[in-house]
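It is worth pausing here to work through a concrete case rather than discussing structure prediction in the abstract. The textbook approach is simple: state the sequence, then state the predicted structure, then interpret. We follow exactly that order.
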Amino acid sequence: MTLNDYEVLLHLSHAEYKMMRRVDLAERILLTASGITRLLEGLERSGSSARRPVTPMLACRTPS
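Step two, the predicted structure:
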């Protein structure tokens, strides 16, 4: 897990309903839109994060 991975999970853990818009996450950890998408895809593969099916712009923290 990278520092950016940890930082995203930390922001999601503290967010209301454990979810945030991808653009807001990118802004908070200083990544581009494509950079946050790649990072979230890796977290999704590991089971640490998931996209909401109805609103793919949202990322949410999965229970672990």
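Step three, interpretation. The CA atoms of residues 21 and 56 lie 9 Å apart. The radius of gyration is 10 Å.
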